[in-house]
Amino acid sequence: MLGSLAFYRRILKDKVFSAPYFQRVKPVPAEQAVATDRQLPTIGHGVAGIMAGWTVSFIAAPVEHIKARLQIQYAVDKKARLYSGPIDCCKKILRTHGLHGLYRGLAATMLFRSFFFFWWGSYDIFTRTFSTHTALSAPAINFWAGGLSAQVFWITSYPSDVVKQRLMTDPLGGELGDGKPRFKKWKDAAKEIWKTDGVRGYWRGFTPCFLRAFPANAVALMAFESAMRALPE
To answer: What's the distance, Cα to Cα, between the start and end of the chain in Å?
Structure first.
């Protein structure tokens, strides 16, 4: 995902935001700059985030779908489980429901990853703020901006992730024999959550996710930006 993000940042910078109007954005001092081109405005980083999110969705959607189905197999006896593993799960879904079945939840995945706008937009804001108002080193800026922006992302996106998981764990039905489907689209899953649990249903499990977001993404983004800085122009 970070690779496609860097790609879209560069494309937007060179092809879209190179107009004189966008050049009014004040760049970060060179000694504090991070890997991304600081002439790209905040909205450009947000748009690049959406584009990267949509791109990776076509890989992530089937992977997350299979993972979700394996995670709800609670039978202690492995022989009683419908799927013996990820490959078996993939084969059975493809055999009974085709590629469309494997990609169930793609729209919900793309909706969830549309909130990357807030992740990478806020990452740029935090980076600019720390660069301007602190004496932190570039890696430290990446660390704090990465962790805080990830928390912004989960605050804005978590309900859509809950809806996505509900849709992906809904029975596919038919020859697969896993039960009767309840939802046709992600909107149906969203309505069901509202009907049964209200607003709280969209935030179930939020606290551990929120607490994990900062350290995991802070370290990852610090490493990524450091690697990008080490690459030749």
So the answer is: 21
